[in-house]
Amino acid sequence: MASPAAKPVVTRFAPSPTGFLHIGGARTALFNWLFARHHGGKALLRIEDTDRKRSTQEAIDAILDGLSWLGLDYDEDPVFQSERADRHAEVAHKLLEAGHAYKCFATPEELEAMRAEQRANKQPMRYDGRWRDRDASEAPDSAPYTVRLKTPSEGEATIADAVQGNVSVRNEELDDYIILRADGTPTYMLAAVVDDHDMGVTHVIRGDDHLNNAFRQLPIYHAMEQIEGDWPEPVYAHVPLIHGSDGAKLSKRHGALGAEAYRDEFGILPEALFNYLLRLGWGHGDREEITRAEAIELFDLSGVGKSPSRFDMKKLENLNGHYIRESDDARLAQLVGERIESDVDLGLLEQAMPVLKTRAKNLNELADGAGFLFARRPLAMTDKAAKLLDADGRARLRAVSDALAGENDWTSEALEATTKSLAERLELGLGKLAQPMRAALTGTTTSPGIFDVLVLLGREESLARIDAQAE
Question: Is 252 a catalytic residue?
């Protein structure tokens, strides 16, 4: 049997299109993609859409959109599992003809009675093999049947998992499961193995909730190896699942949402989510910030931990803040402009980015922070801002207006010097002038530096806003 390690690496990401690309699936996709890129191999995509009732085109589009947004590209067109049912059935019939599978004529009523007895006796819920050694001639003519795989019933199987290490299961714990339903359609267990073989997959990297499936799928590889040869089992790598920050299984309340939600709702940059997912269960020393190129160079399965990782939205946002500060201002202006409802001057927004992005942790905060640039007079005021514009505040604004109106050098340095000089003449701290100025200029009590705000708004608009509140 040829060793998968001797072949070029081929990985696959195989989502079921019954919903969005959730965060766990996105990490699985990332690990598969990085492993293939690191080894100079192929990264493939398979859409496991055999559940026709639950699979939707909307979900397929959402998955493809999420993968594209994260920058995960694939070396061949996606394989749609639903289009390969004939091939799956072909393999099932080969297994049947070679004696590695058999027809089961047990009726639904018989199987339910079997399960009821097992429940009553507190036994494991497994098919009892009642048709394993019987001849099909014992069944009524034209009776419907399923095809079951004849799994080993003695000894044990061991998987040298690239993440979990050696894992063994007694074969008696497995049952003869269905590979072809009574209507002739294949089950997931068969379809996944046949597709992995036909796609040349060498490494199956997936969540450790699939570890039991590996033991059920291996007998298909072994049987087909006997029948045809060249059916090497893949290298398995079962990655621990992601938990919430409280250690419980990840759910929507922890952030188990689609990739598009992090983009659209939370304002996360794709490179930030890429980096965060990379570090969620994989590590390279103490490195937190790792570029895409570095990730391809460094990633290997030896760095994947055996314990579940914890999803932490605050850590993601902190990392996102780093990437916002590193990001190109024109790109940020475009992204933020799409989040502001009013007409946007992208040139002005780009000019504002160096001061807007210093503390922002997501694109929503950037958009909120930039809102004052495009606000129309009279400005809407927050309650806190309105309180600053009492009689004293308005009087100070009149003094500020007179001082700034005489300023010919409309730069932050000159405006700061003029305002500080005014504060000294009035025997006030600078904040006593800056606070009502901020309220008048932005309608809020938080903004970039007040002198940056004056420069960004320009002389005419700044004085008009101050005068409007000084009256």
Answer: yes
